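User: Can you predict the 3D structure for this chain?
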Amino acid sequence: MVIETVTPQAVSLRISRAELDGRRTMTQQEAREAVLRALTDSGQPPWLRMEISLFPAEEELLLIARPVSPCPCRFRFQRFNDLTAALAYLPTETDSDVVYIEGGYELLLYLAESALPNALYEFGEPLPCTPELAAHLTEQGELIARENAVSLLQKYFC
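Assistant: Here is the predicted structure, written as structure tokens:
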């Protein structure tokens, strides 16, 4: 495997047919492992989610990967008590941020929408969100808890 490029924004690898045991391509799992190995070997942090493109050629396979930010789910709570009531229904390990902005608490969750408990809708108001908006909120608002907000706030308030 020849590492062409490894940056926080992209990984480019060339993999010979010999390394692929004569196959023309590789599985998504093999591709993911190759990207994670290249990131680790280059001292970059691993990506949780990534988009991988494979381009087979006669003698080798070109692999290009980039990280994909999950689209956060956003809920607004008027009162801190409503926020903590909803947090009690979330798994402790939920990747999340909590920000106070414009007179309310914004909970940003980085998980599949299908995994959201009904309590979030009962105590809070769901709002649209993009990765860019989430970054804006965490930069401009008063950051209450970052990354593992659910775990931290559950520890002290639930």
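The beta strands are 2-6, 11-16, 50-56, 60-67, 73-77, 96-101, 104-109, 125-127, 142-145. The chain has a mean pLDDT of 91.
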